[in-house]
Amino acid sequence: MNSDRNPIVAAFDAAAETYDSATPVQREVARALVFRAAAAVKKAPRKILDLGAGAGHVTGLALEQWPEAEITALDAAPAMLRKLRAKYPGVRTIARDARDLDRLPRYDLILSSMMLHWLDDPRAALEKWRALLAPGGRLCVATPVAGSLREWREILDAAGMEDAIWGFPPENFALGLGAKIEFADFSAVYPDARGFLRGLKQAGAQTPRPGARPSPAGALRRALAASPGPFKIGFRIAFLISGADQPE
Ligand SMILES: C[S@@+](CC[C@H](N)C(=O)[O-])C[C@H]1O[C@@H](n2cnc3c(N)ncnc32)[C@H](O)[C@@H]1O
């Protein structure tokens, strides 16, 4: 995939330099995911794949947890992968769309954090990813679900404005796939709502929902001014753990 043609990936690619410092919640979620994965695997995985690896929050923690493993980081944004390689030179990287898994080997552990919701069909992606597991392997995924960024949506609602931020799948989106699912809440505090919007851009996560109209600048300024002071924003995260085919 050419990142220039996918606006989501192009936005992440452009944010590679600021991503790490702008993503305290993503870092925490990555830690919680690797912790859950460590509890889910029966023996130390030899081959690990990090899908939508970005600048390496998950990859770095997986390296700490399984120093002997061969880790591959896949992401469609080349600048993110350059950042990741600078931190973890031993990691193999693949610049590719996470829905195109042709000619990849089987993995004992597949991890993915904060990426699934950017795909048009998260269920189909999960099924494809699961098909890439070696026998006895584990797929461990963290994704935000509906209810995330509720505080921002409330500001826009109060101002009578359309919410253009990317949508999240409903909590039950993976029902029937045979995955074990747990939910946990995470939050970040910004000096004000404007700081949140700035952080979103520095993380590369500002791509609007398809079909959403951009907010008129004046109305947005007024909505932000109506919400001064510290701004706490929440993420509701689903952690999915699945084997190759059997229900957990
Ligand atoms: C929010 S970041 C998460 C990065 C990392 N997993 C973390 O936890 O910090 C989402 C990542 O998914 C990547 N991404 C988005 N859509 C993708 C796609 N279709 N194929 C591959 N990567 C994609 C972006 O380039 C970005 O690096």
Care to describe what's here?
A seven-stranded mixed sheet has the order 3-2-1-4-5-7-6, with helices on both faces. The protein has 248 residues and is an alpha/beta fold. Helix content is 33%, strand content 23%. It has eight helices and seven strands. Helix 3 links the parallel strand 1 (47-51) and strand 2 (70-75). The chain is globular and about 55 Å long. Helix 2 (24-40) packs parallel to helix 3 (57-65). The protein has one domain (3-148, 167-187, 235-242): Vaccinia Virus protein VP39 (Rossmann fold, 3-Layer(aba) Sandwich), CATH 3.40.50.150. It has helices at 7-14, 24-40, 57-65, 78-87, 122-130, 150-158, 193-202, 217-225, and strands spanning 47-51, 70-75, 92-95, 107-113, 133-144, 180-190, 231-242. S-adenosylmethionine (SAM) is lined by residues 8-9, 12, 23, 26, 30, 52-54, 57-58, 75-77, 80, 97-99, 113-115, 118-119, 205.
